[in-house]
């Protein structure tokens, strides 16, 4: 690819599309560029250096950018990255070396429908701003569990919310996308109009255009009871035995769990993040976990609070700009397999725990049958997981560390561990094809994990709405269909 950094034609095109406001375009060598390019979730994305950062503030500017850059993309003169909040740990998904990063954080707006049954959210918003706005109306929606996460990447990757057991993946609550296609045309995708595109965007990522707003169903907000309980390390298998029992005998679709074994700064602990989204105190499904001992009682955060408060709490477990990433796989619940995974995780930890600033966790996120049934009823999505496949566990490996000289060591250790996990699960017939996109690593074949039929539908949708492959060839970051 030809670098666009010194291409006066591309600079002129960007200026034409964005207008005369100098704040709408950042270039290397300026304080504004350094600020914009240093604001990602991971250090890896901050270290990528685009030639230009285009910052549209209107849908019309997005359309102009797509129209005016399309010939350069097709000619191979430049490539693009599309950024929301920039929370994905995969640097190439949200930034692009020597290309043009289109930063959509300037697209603002949260608008309730007249009957308050849906909310239209512009893609520059985060879940913190969405929840704050909806709180004023006594409403909520199936958004992110971490407040500072952006709206578009979370939804386009599928998304898990606190209400997923009752409402499916977060993307299943989307009633409409507005998206700028490769032609520059703005279209609606919903259950009645461009329905194939609507389904594809629910998990289909940046393969079809630039989404400018997302309309989601709302529901009455209630206080939530729950928080985080910490246990001593030896309780892990007791906790996971109860976790397997919970997902195999789902008795309460208003309960949401996350379980993990973790290490940080020389200490190990087991954590259970648990909520009752209707505010019920100590419901039976949660009480069994509260009964586990020994707990680290002084660290418990169990309380009654608003959704936004819990999302801000989870946001404090990581800091933007750190060296951090995620790796994932999906398995069927099996206690023996989980025990082996935990042993392998502990073995890996022993080889890297001297790394400066290391935080290392092994997490389990349930995909209950209730979640998959609700997802199916919502009109389908790109993931295409039949309810009969459930329940499942999405496993999340999350290392964080301080120094660049430890990068290859951490990546190598986690890659070897994950390879072993996948082989073990496959040998036991417990490995599921699906990879939770929001947690996937850049080497993962996410789209193949959606299944053959879904992949063929996604490719057909791409060919229909982007026949020249602008968003396949010109936006190389993320998980591509071809």
TrEMBL record:
Q: Boundaries of each FAD-binding PCMH-type domain copy?
A: 46-221
Q: Does the keyword Membrane apply?
A: no
Pfam families, A to Z = FAD_binding_4
A GO molecular function held by the record: oxidoreductase activity
SUPFAM superfamilies associated with the record: FAD-binding/transporter-associated domain-like (SSF56176)
Keyword Oxidoreductase listed: yes
Keywords per UniProt: FAD, Flavoprotein, Oxidoreductase
Identify its protein family: Belongs to the oxygen-dependent FAD-linked oxidoreductase family.
Q: What is this protein called?
A: Bifunctional solanapyrone synthase
Native species of this protein? Podospora fimiseda
């Amino acid at each position: 690819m030809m670098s666009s950094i010194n291409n006066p034609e591309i600079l002129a095109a960007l200026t034409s599309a964005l207008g005369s406001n100098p704040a709408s375009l950042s270039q290397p060598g300026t304080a504004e560029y350094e600020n914009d390019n240093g604001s990602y979730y991971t250090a890896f994305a901050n270290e990528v250096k685009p030639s230009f950062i285009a910052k549209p503030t209107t849908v019309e500017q997005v359309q102009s950018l797509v129209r005016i850059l399309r010939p350069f993309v097709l000619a191979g003169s430049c490539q693009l990255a599309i950024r929301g909040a920039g929370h994905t740990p995969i640097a190439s998904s949200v930034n692009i070396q020597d290309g043009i990063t289109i930063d959509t954080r300037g697209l603002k707006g949260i608008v309730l429908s007249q009957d308050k049954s849906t909310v239209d959210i512009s893609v520059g918003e985060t879940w913190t701003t969405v929840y704050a706005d909806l709180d004023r109306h006594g409403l909520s929606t199936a958004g992110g569990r971490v407040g500072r996460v952006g709206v578009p990447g979370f939804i386009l990757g599928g998304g898990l919310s606190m209400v997923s057991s009752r409402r499916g993946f977060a993307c299943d609550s989307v009633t409409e996308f507005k998206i700028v296609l490769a032609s520059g045309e703005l279209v609606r995708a919903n259950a009645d109009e461009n329905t194939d595109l609507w389904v594809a965007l629910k998990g289909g990522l940046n393969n079809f255009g630039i989404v400018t707003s997302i309309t989601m169903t709302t529901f009455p907000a209630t206080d939530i009871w729950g928080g985080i309980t910490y246990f001593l390390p030896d309780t892990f298998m007791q906790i996971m035995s109860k976790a397997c029992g919970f997902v195999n005998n789902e008795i309460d679709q208003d309960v949401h769990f996350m379980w993990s074994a973790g290490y940080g700064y020389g200490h190990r602990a087991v954590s259970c993040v648990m909520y009752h989204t209707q505010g019920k105190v100590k419901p039976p499904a949660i009480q069994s976990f509260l009964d586990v001992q020994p707990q680290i009682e002084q660290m418990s955060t169990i309380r009654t609070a608003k959704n936004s408060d819990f999302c801000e709490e989870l946001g404090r477990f990581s800091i933007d700009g750190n060296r951090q990433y995620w790796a994932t796989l999906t398995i069927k619940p099996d206690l023996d397999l989980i025990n082996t995974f935990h042993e392998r995780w502990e073995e890996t930890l022993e080889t890297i725990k001297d790394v400066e600033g290391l935080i290392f966790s092994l997490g389990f996120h349930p995909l209950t049958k209730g979640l998959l049934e609700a997802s199916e009823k919502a009109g389908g999505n790109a993931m295409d997981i039949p309810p009969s496949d459930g329940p499942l566990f999405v496993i999340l490996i999350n290392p964080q560390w301080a120094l660049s000289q430890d990068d290859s060591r951490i990546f190598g250790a986690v890659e070897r561990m994950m390879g072993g996990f996948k082989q073990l699960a496959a040998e036991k017939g417990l490995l599921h094809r699906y990879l939770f996109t929001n947690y996937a690593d850049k080497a993962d074949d996410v789209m193949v994990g959606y299944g053959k039929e879904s992949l063929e539908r996604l490719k057909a949708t791409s060919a229909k709405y982007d026949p020249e492959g602008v968003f396949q060839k010109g936006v190389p970051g993320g998980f591509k269909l071809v």
